[in-house]
Amino acid sequence: MSNSFAVKFKGEFCLFLAAFIWGSAFIFQKMGMDHIGPFTFGIFRFCLGALALLPVIWISGAINKRRPEPREITPFTDKTLWLGALLGGVSNFVAGSLQQVGLVYTTAGKAGFITSMSIVIVPLFLLFMRKKVGRMTWIGIAMATTGLYLLCITESFSLQLGDSLVLGCAVAYSFQILIIDYFAERVDAVKLSFMMFMLAGILSGITALFTETIELQAILDCAVPILYVAILEVSVAFTLQVVGQKYTSPALAAIIMSLESVFAAICGGLFLGETMTAREITGCVIMFAAFVISQLPDRKQSAE
User: Fold this and answer.
1) Stretch 148-171: mean pLDDT, rounded?
2) Which of 105-109, 198-202, 230-234, 252-256 has the highest mean pLDDT?
3) Nearest residue to 253 via CA among 180, 146, 183
4) Is the pTM of this model over 0.85?
């Protein structure tokens, strides 16, 4: 029982840390948009994030070879790895691109709420897949949705062009969560992340060539946001997501990762001087309560 709890905690902590990094990276993404286009930003965001994983892959392989009984590591030629990378990479590209472009036409508050609608979309997908979603998870989903609304929505809600684009991001992100949930147990998580990000970066590059003007000086001016987002948000956080989802249900994973919007609000207050209203603070509290409540059934079962 204690070992099961430790494994479960490991997965949840990885996802919690990923949500924190994503939330803190939001201010750097906003800074990046002041210099370069969303697809140009995506090139460096995903490709540099992927390249940062190469030393991790090499070191892990070297350590594994020295073990008395080396564990089996997924080779780059594995067909399952390629399939997961293809599906995950396309989902990453679509979700990231729709969100960045949607931010041009809608407010950050609406974008934050709509993107985090994955906490509702994922369980709905699971129902279509005939998988059981626990009662307390549904309560957590309802609370998290309420908290996100209080935290992010400050004006009348209407689905316009930007809102539609970000809603598409939420759908694509929900697919990514389910894709990772399936493949993370079958292939090497770090190699899966590397190939997903590289494909997303290549797709961003192809799109940027036809839609944006790429200028060296603008890229240099954007160096700090690019490096922060590439190394921490992409390389570290998304890998934490892949690892964390090995030990966490997709519905609960979506709730934990939706805490990104809470951390974004906190970091905005700390580093950009943004203030939080009583309504927004209430939203944060409800979000954290949803995270705790959604875990209760599993812990009861493990105690039994």
Assistant:
1) 74
2) 198-202
3) 180
4) no
pLDDT at 109 over 90: no
| Listed ranges 25-29, 44-48, 128-132, 260-264; the one with the highest mean pLDDT | 44-48
Dist CA 265 CA 279 (whole Å) = 12
Exposure string (b/e) for 41-72, b if CB count within 10 Å is 16 or more?
bbbbbbbbbbbbbeebbeeeeeeeeeeeeeee
Residue keyed to tokens 């709420």: 113
Q: Give the integer Cα–Cα distance in Å for 235 and 217.
A: 25
Task: Burial-class residue 155 by CB neighbours within 10 Å (0-12, 13-18, 19+).
Answer: exposed
How would you class 31 by CB atoms within 10 Å of its CB: exposed for 0-12, middle for 13-18, buried for 19 or more? middle
What six digits make up the tokens of 56?
A: 């991790």
b (16+ CB within 10 A) / e for 282-301: ebbebbeebbebbbebbeee
Residue 205 CB coordination number (10 Å): 17
